[in-house]
Specification:
- The structure is a homodimer of 199-residue chains.
- Chain A has 199 residues and is mainly α.
- Helices cover 74% and strands 0% of the residues of chain A.
- Chain A has nine helices and no strands.
- In chain A, helix 1 packs across helix 2, helix 5 packs across helix 7 and helix 8 packs antiparallel against helix 9.
- The first copy, chain A, is elongated and about 55 Å long.
- Chains A and B meet through helix 6, helix 7, helix 8 and helix 9 of A and helix 6, helix 7, helix 8 and helix 9 of B.
């Protein structure tokens, strides 16, 4: 197997730095220089990799959501295999909330952050955000459908509608999380949604 | 009655421009120069009114939420007086969504936008965001409690918990609204919450 070229390494490092910096500082709060400094790359070389900041961010969003969906699917097929669909969803939100707490509430969901701040300023990024949300909706719809079959979730609402509601509540919960700088309000909201309103 | 001084007019105009610009462009996307240009005020004078951009934004958040709660209370005591609590909540979200559509989905909720983008970067603003959310929670808890008494909402969850859920879903719905640049997904989510999950 041939080793990836050095330029591939740099490109990858830039995208990873982008995921981190954009999650924390937002679109307008993250300069290209900041990304390059993280990766220790001279300023001029950015445009060898990406046509513009906008194109870079669109790619960062795409990568972030691919990684996220892959992790979620990996959990369901692996460690979470023997959990019920509802327990899988609970484990996922609890794990994600702990991860956010570990970042001192700075790094939440890139999809929510970019949608809120700049989706209306870039068609390119907005298309990636929509595609990301669509892929995530498929994942959550499948889990909720399985939960409906197992009798864990109400059946008077379609799995797809519940999945949209679940994701919408999650994005809203992350906003209150950043505001409160603590987990409890978001955790309570997700538990109420999963255990009571969706039951 | 003495007329308000000119400086009061300018201060007020700066705050109103702040509400608009920050809602559309976010914290980092809005420069002080931009605000001053809107109001036609020379750059140097900003700091006669506000100690810093941060102090200005904190005041903008406070004013935005005061105005919002006043409008909501005015509606419930006035035009919406003869509606049921559930119909009041429905009218409020439908009216607000139309207003956002009129701004071409650029101007949504300042509280959500600032919480998502910069609550973790400023204690001053975060305190105002928390205070705003608390006041709004009181309003929505009262409406939901009235709806519970009228048999419109489920009673196995407290009005306060439902109010938090309702607000969280609203903030999440505004994120999807900005992403989709259309009303339907947000409208569907709010209708499902109000008519089915909270019923």
């Amino acid at each position: 197997m041939s080793r990836p070229r050095r330029s591939e390494h740099i490109r990858e490092a830039l995208i990873q730095a982008g995921i981190e910096q954009l999650s924390i500082h937002g679109y307008h709060g993250t300069g290209i220089k900041q990304i390059l400094d993280e990766v220790n790359v001279p300023k001029g070389s950015f445009y060898n990799f990406f046509a513009s900041k906008e194109a870079f961010v669109a790619e960062v969003i795409a990568r972030y959501s691919q990684d996220l969906v892959q992790q979620l699917q990996g959990f369901v097929a692996g460690d979470g295999k023997h959990l019920s669909p509802k327990a899988q969803l609970q484990t996922i939100y609890e794990f994600t909330l702990s991860k956010i707490a570990n970042s001192e509430f700075k790094q939440a969901c890139l999809i929510g952050a970019m949608s809120s701040e700049m989706a209306n300023q870039s068609d390119l990024c907005r298309d990636q955000l929509k595609a990301a949300t669509k892929t995530l909706a498929v994942f959550f719809t499948e889990r909720i459908q399985a939960g409906q079959l197992a009798g864990e979730f109400r059946q008077d609402v379609t799995a797809s509608e519940l999945a949209n509601m679940y994701w919408t509540t999650w994005e809203g919960a992350l906003i209150t999380l950043k505001m409160h700088n603590r987990l409890k309000p978001a955790k309570d909201t997700m538990a109420l949604m999963l255990n009571v309103l969706m039951a």
